[in-house]
Design brief:
Layout: H1 3-8, H2 13-30, H3 46-52, H4 56-73, H5 84-97, E1 101-105, H6 111-123, E2 128-133, H7 143-147, H8 153-159, E3 166-170, H9 173-182, E4 187-192, H10 198-208, E5 212-220, H11 239-250, E6 254-258, E7 276-280
Parallel strand pairs: 1-2, 1-4, 2-3, 4-5
Antiparallel strand pairs: 5-7, 6-7
Helix pairs in contact: 2-10, 4-5, 4-6, 5-6, 9-10, 10-11
Length: 281
């Protein structure tokens, strides 16, 4: 058991939040100033986001695909993946925007991976998803085994008929992003949900702008505006917010669009979401 895990079981949420902040701040400020390409970022309004949630047909399709995904995953695995309300939002984004190429950082048990792949399948034949994790998520001892999922993400994707749409990459996030940039690969959607440390998010967001197609979206998970709690448990993951604070200070043309409240439940009896977009100011 790590020291952080042990402290989580002892300290109340407000004190644990302070511990997280204290541990991450020095690492963030040791990272050299990153180059960032804001010209590819879109401007996205609150009204633009509201339009994503208004498609009743996409909601019906999500309910059908969610039932299939959860039957494949097995309910214990849902505890280790993106919550169902956030997965619906991600699904609707993919379903509405129909990206041809998606890059996901942080596969874990594959909950969001499967949601995006099923949404791509509804969009037509062209969509493809590359999902990156520092661990071999499909190994016999991968995260899926620890949380009690029925099978590894690759097997689940094949069972759902979307296996050919997904490329699983075992590699540190920055290595994968730099390799994609060198190869000239571009993605219409980049979903960052890997290492949530401030230093890692700072580097990943900057690097993501160099693999983003013009007008593509960089989607963040676990972005807590103001580093304040979003859910009743009082827990905060400060890294993404602190990383974007620094990036915004250094890059006047960059901003963040938190999603706020969703029209459906997310977790802990709330409609709040930690999803946010990196956008042009």
């Amino acid at each position: 058991m790590s020291a952080r895990t042990a402290l989580r079981g002892i300290l109340p949420a407000p004190l644990m939040n302070l511990v997280r902040e204290a541990m991450q701040a020095p690492k963030l400020w040791r990272v050299p100033t990153a180059e960032i390409r804001t010209s590819v970022l879109p401007r996205v309004s609150a009204a633009d986001l509201s339009e994503l949630w208004a498609h009743n047909e996409h909601g019906r399709q999500w309910r059908e695909d969610r039932a299939r995904i959860e039957a494949a995953l097995g309910s214990p695995a849902l505890l280790g993946g993106v919550n169902p309300g956030d997965r619906e939002a991600i699904y609707r984004i993919v379903r509405t925007r129909a990206p041809r190429r998606i890059l996901e950082v942080g596969t874990h048990v594959g909950a969001s991976t499967l949601a995006m792949a099923c949404a791509l399948a509804r969009c037509g034949d062209a969509g493809h998803l590359t999902t990156v994790d520092v661990l071999d998520v499909n190994a016999d001892d991968g995260p899926w085994r620890r949380v009690g999922s029925r099978a590894c993400p690759r097997t689940l994707a094949e069972d759902l008929g979307v296996g050919e749409r997904i490329e699983f990459v075992t590699q540190p996030a920055m290595e994968a992003l730099r390799a994609a940039a060198r190869d000239g690969r571009r993605f219409d959607l980049v979903f960052l949900d890997g290492d949530h440390g401030a230093a890692a998010v700072y580097e990943e967001v900057a690097a993501a702008t160099f693999v983003l197609a013009e007008g593509g979206w960089i989607l963040l998970h676990d972005y807590y505006p103001g580093a304040r709690p979003l859910f009743p448990d009082g827990r905060v993951i400060p890294g993404p917010y602190r990383a974007l604070q620094r990036l915004r200070r250094e890059t006047p043309g960059l901003s963040v669009r938190p999603f706020g409240l969703l029209p459906w439940p997310t977790k802990q009896g709330s409609h709040a979401t930690s999803l946010a977009l990196v956008v042009r100011a």
